[in-house]
User: What shape does this take?
Amino acid sequence: MKKIFILLAAAVSAGMLTSCESFLAEESYGSTTDVFNEENGIKALVYQGYTKINNIYGGGSDFFMMAECSSDLFMRAAANDDAAMCDYRGLSASTYKVNWLWNHCYKALANINQFFEMIDTTPFADEGDKDQMKAEMHTMRALFLWIITEMWGDTYLPMTTDEIEGAEARRSPRADFYREIEASLLEAIRLLPDTRSTEMGRIDMPTAKALLARMYLYAEKYDEAAAMASEVIDHYGLELSPSLTDLWADDKTNNEFIWATAWSNDNAYNRGVTNWQPQFFSPNIGLYSDYVVPELRYTGYDNGGWGLPTPYYVSLFDHKADRRWTDLHQTVWLYNVETDQADVPASLRDAHPLNQWRYHVDTSIYISVDALGAAERERMKKTYKLFEMSDLYADNGAGQPKVRNMFIGIKKFDDHTRTSAQSSLSDRPYPVIRLAELYLIRAEARMRSTTQPDLAGAVRDITDLRSRAVVPGYEAEMAVTEADITADFILAERARELGCEWQRWLDLKRFHRAGDLNMIEHIKDHNPDAAPNIEAYHIVRPIPQAQFDGMPDWTTLGQNEGY
Assistant: This one.
């Protein structure tokens, strides 16, 4: 671990941020650590923490691979060739994305420890700023510690920047991590003003409390989780967006995002600081029709496709009753090449004689998630390019992808404000935690409480959450009763609401720990790519070999079993 502290100056100078203007404005300070004896240097450590949060949530593919694409919900799409991370095929201490996340989290914690060791002795023009920044760093510390212990289990818990401690990097049990996580968040809550921040992405009181509610759920403190979730739900002016399309609105503002990554759209930064989500879940439609092309609001991102839904994920939704399916998934692509009908090739007109090829009116590609009768199938094939589940997946629509560049698209992160349909640059905020999750946390905690289970309260939570997800006329299909409130139902509801939001693998591990499922067998059953490769030891990730290369005696930490 000694390498982490050697890299501290370089890590900070690579993206250091100044206290002037926004808390996301960038400035380079060079490689000296003397700057940390000054107010701007201390503040830069805080702003660097925000940058590292952005790089995890929305800013790259690494955490996506570890949290979503290796779970039961998503498999590799065409642009994703990381079979080690996603399929568990050859997952080892040399796997790049494991190494990246490990280094990223521990460098962040090195900065945070540096901050706490110097903040009290560094003079500030306004000493009152210190409490706010301490609270922000405590909150980020809790998040990074959570990611580390859930990914790697009982591992190194860095408490200082001491080189001997770092070089030995001795293991601590998961329980120690959660004691530190809880203590950090409680201290953040003590220091923060009891209000919401007006600045997008800035850690505030509801952020700290919402994250603590999540941490209580992982620590099996269910009554505390329910109470803390209620604190967030009932105060601070937060509210569920009236509709899912409002939630992911183009103006980038809503009252549901509690903590979201904030991005710069200023090209002068030119650091690739962007939200990559719009391209992660979009198929390569151009390969399947010459008369549908990427277009903002109509198609998606061509040449993207990092994750495609498993058949299991598709099966979790009521495709007619649940707006989380109808509003946030794409199965229809419209004809959108402006051309005279006479220019449509005879071969295409012969293949689809029922299509009138009207711009932005007629369908060009359609994926059917429902079984079709023979007559309906023939009518559709004469009208547009048709894909059934059996065309996309082997084993009659239940197995591995037959193709990886055509699949049901996910529109949750579509950004129609990009400069073009092929642009990968998005400044759309990405939610680290949003209000809908707090309803799910409280419902689960009420169900799991060992002192006072409250299934009726859990029903109210799910009903409130589903209020915007009901397609008119299907209220009965979306209704929930106390008999529905089981661990299986909660896990499925979390998939429907939070799918693609970097939590699924962690959810499976938590439900495994609670005894509700066998995580390994569950992934085998529902992720055909992973099924041949996943083993019991994959419930934790391998510690990177580069970590051991920097230690005088690697056995003080030791590799996780099986790797």
Summary: Residues 1-31, 265-273 have pLDDT under 50 and may be disordered. The chain is about 45% helix and 5% strand.
